[in-house]
Specification:
Radius of gyration: 16 Å
Number of domains: 1
Distance between the termini: 23 Å
CATH topology: Rossmann fold
CATH architecture: 3-Layer(aba) Sandwich
Number of helices: 5
Mean pLDDT: 89
Number of strands: 5
Strand order of the largest sheet: 3-2-1-4-5
Helix content: 40-55%
CATH superfamily: HUPs
Low-confidence stretches: none
Length: 145
């Protein structure tokens, strides 16, 4: 069965639900977890003169801290359930690529990931990290909604 499961989290309630599913599965099967939270890099875009943007370094650090908190929340829940869990964070332009790369580098057997189920314009504008993970990996992926 699965020995190492990657659990990406964005800090949302739905992502925590997926993490709880992974924790329960790992507890019952003796697997260990790796939880990953990816902070997306500051979106540098061309804007008209006079537009005030946040400080990119402060923005990136705030997102990294939020990612650390999200990963730690999952690690704490796993520890409470008696499941080994390593919490890691990363900064990347494409969270789906970072998820896939982390799963490969850490020799994960499966990925348990949440899907917000966006449709229509929301999916077009926001994209789907889960969809890109499904398309980009050969690992088994359990999608929780």
């Amino acid at each position: 069965m699965f020995k190492t499961i990657l659990v990406p989290t964005d800090g949302s309630e739905l992502a925590f639900k997926a993490a709880q599913t992974a924790i329960e599965f790992a507890r019952e099967s003796g697997a260990r977890l790796i939880t990953l939270s990816v902070a997306e890099s500051f979106p540098y875009i061309a804007l008209a003169e006079g537009v005030v943007l946040p400080n990119p370094e402060e923005y990136d650090e705030a997102l990294l801290q939020a990612a650390r908190n999200s990963a730690q929340q999952v690690a704490d829940a796993a520890a409470k359930a008696g499941v080994a869990c390593e919490a890691i964070t990363a900064q990347a332009v494409d969270p789906s690529a970072e998820i896939i790369d982390t799963a490969t580098r850490r020799a994960c057997d499966a990925i348990f990931i949440a899907s917000h189920g966006r449709r229509g314009l929301g999916k077009i504008w926001l994209g789907s990290v889960t969809q890109r993970v499904l398309a980009g990996t050969r690992l088994p992926v359990l999608v929780i909604r």
